[in-house]
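User: quick one, fold this
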Amino acid sequence: MTEPIVVVGAALLSGGRLLAARRSAPPELAGRWELPGGKVEPGETPEQALVRELREELGVEAEPAERVPGEWPVRSDLVLQVWTAHLVSGEPGPLEDHDELRWLTPDEVWDVDWLDQDVQAVMETVRLAWGREGTEAR
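Assistant:
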């Protein structure tokens, strides 16, 4: 059995808020929200992939900080790993595969319809970043 491909997600934090990105593609995911990121390419570390993906998808420079505990299946050949990250420069914009971005406070984090595979990752991120149970306000 081959190892699954790692998809990195960024729990991009700024000013006590978490960035959520609404998918515009593919059609079966359009309209749902995710932590931005993408597949780790051959020869890249997950942290390098995170930096590259945020540059491509959002037009920002970011610095990975801490791995969020756990990993979550996206499908049989993909697994999601999440890192907290901080903006270094730029203002995020939906450049690729997204049509809207929202900065969410801890009280707003469940106001969006997260992709199924991102729900557990967001719960862990909320616990790690804000010291709150991720199921609050759900």
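User: anything notable?
Assistant: The chain has a mean pLDDT of 93.
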